[in-house]
Amino acid sequence: MLKSLFTTLLILPFFVSAEKVTISYYKCVSDRGTIFSQHPCGNNGTVHTLTHSNPEAKIPPENHFKTLNNLEKQQIVRNLKREIRAKRQKSAILSRDRDRESREQQARLNRVMDDRKKQQTIQDVKKQLKSINKQYLKDIKDIDKQIVRLEKQLARYQ
């Protein structure tokens, strides 16, 4: 019995195709000494397990790729949502800036001044408001295009 156990233990490393090999054996201590066996050898026998893993064995494909792909997909979706939120925030900031600049230009008209100076100021304010609105519309158009592009990307992942 002892010979067959040690023979099994000796050939264990040569299981190249097996990923993991597990062998159970019994250890019995008696008056005559310690006995190792594949079968129970008495009332005081204890079961031990020996496991050997072959590092060269090919690991069967599992769903790790699917898990990694799902994690990457979740990260991409989260990043796209953040980017869309940032673009919308930038759009709101541009709108507030335009409104503030328009109020400043309108405030110029309320100052007390003579008619000639007031006429020049009105023309200048109209010109400034046109410039402010033109720049605002250009910036908003760019941001809207970026948001649409990001939402299309997001739709691909959802």
How are the secondary structure elements laid out?
Blueprint: H1 2-11, E1 20-30, E2 33-37, E3 46-53, H2 64-109, H3 115-157
Question: How big is the Rg?
Answer: 40 Å
The overall pLDDT, averaged over residues, is: 80
**Overall geometric form:** rod-shaped
- In the predicted model, the low-confidence regions spanning at least 5 consecutive residues are none
| Total strands | 3
Can you list the strand order of the major beta sheet? 2-1-3
- Count of discrete alpha- or pi-helical segments spanning 4 or more residues: 3
Order of helices and strands: HEEEHH
Helix residue percentage: 55-70%
Gap between N and C termini: 62 Å
Largest sheet: 3 strands, antiparallel
Strand proportion = 15-25%
- What structural class do the secondary elements suggest? alpha+beta
